[in-house]
Amino acid sequence: MIIRAELTWVDGAFRPGIEVELGGDGRILRVGPASAPTPTHPGTAMLPGFVNAHSHAFQRGLRGRGEHFPSDVENFWTWREAMYGLVDGMTPDALHALSRDVFLEMRRAGITTVGEFHYLHHLEGEPPFSGDHVVLEAAREVGIRIVLLSAHYTHGGFGTNLSGGQRRFDTSDAETYWDAFDRAAEACGPNQSMGVVAHSLRAVPIDDLVVLHQEVLRRGLVLHIHVEEQRQEIEDCLRATGRTPTGLLLEHLQPGPECTSVHATHTASDDLEQWLDRGCGVCLCPLTEANLGDGFPDRPRMLRHAASLSIGSDSNSRVSMLEELRMLELAHRLHDGTRGAWRDASGRIDRVLLDMATSGGARSLGIEAGRIAPGALADFVLVDLGADTLSHVDHDNLGAALVLGADREAIVGTCVGGSWSTA
Length: 423
Ligand SMILES: [Zn+2]
Description:
Blueprint (H helix, E strand, L loop, with lengths): L1 E2 L1 E6 L2 E4 L1 E5 L5 E6 L7 E8 L1 E6 L20 H13 L3 H17 L2 E8 L11 H13 L2 E8 L21 H14 L4 E7 L7 H14 L3 E5 L3 H11 L3 H9 L5 E5 L5 H9 L3 E4 L1 H6 L7 H5 L5 E3 L9 H16 L13 H16 L14 E5 L13 H8 L5 E6 L2 E4 L1
The structure holds zinc ion (ZN).
Zinc ion (ZN) binds next to loops.
């Protein structure tokens, strides 16, 4: 298959006259000058498919529900109680419908890979770990590429047992965890793979996390963990261990590029510097962090390691990769009282932000996607240059116009492993 869009995003710019040839293996065979003048996809621009590095599909069920605020104090922790209420009665059919529908929303938003940070392992009246298989099946139906990031979850807090809805997440011990992991891996079909999660340092004691990480390295997998989204988590960790969560990970794990911390909103400067210097990643979830009132991450420090940053839709209260990038850029402009928040050395924001949504996500999930280059997975998103939100925009400004001025109306198709789906 040969694809000639009007414009193709290669090496950080939209370029005309490019042709992309796909192999039979769902990967890109060749990228080069067009061999014919007529586009195969006229009136479109093609980018690497967006990579959503952090999602909890089932939380789509909270959309709108968690947005009534009867008490004086409404924050992350009251939201978490609403989330526990949702999981308590979750049936396989309900989880399947929520997962399928949110994965469909993702494809329509240009997302071709989802990193599903999955901890809802057990469902009402079903055998243990049936939730893992329901999510894989929903992804297969929609045709979205999935990295099932299976979560280890053994504690309800520092030194406390699981209770209530948390029992749906229970992985007990390393043997139980890896047994369920291997069964999910066996169930993976085309475009499906596995990664490892420690839900948080609240949920997995550091000694267990060290053992988990050793196995991650032995198997060549990635490891994701929720870190320092809330100040209370840091205070609780300091009280229990004398260290911050990131400080604990740095001290005990020898973390490297295989590790991604999700949020790192309140990570101390020294910790963050060391984390990023070691090549570890950070996944930001701008819309969810805004919705939950989390706060602002350390932009200047993160920007110096922009290739290590990725984006996640997290709670899925809104599914739009372009809006995630827009929120990230505009929120930091508001916060800092300046313009051009996430810019590179040449002053462009589109390269930094679109890289987070593509190559940064792929790096975090350990897949060869997120770029249009030979050998990479043939995952693309197609943009309609005739969309009303993109009229009067020239090629050089298209990236910034997409991020700041467009949304789903401009996205007309996605391709996963060489198979197209129109929006
Ligand atoms: Zn999360």
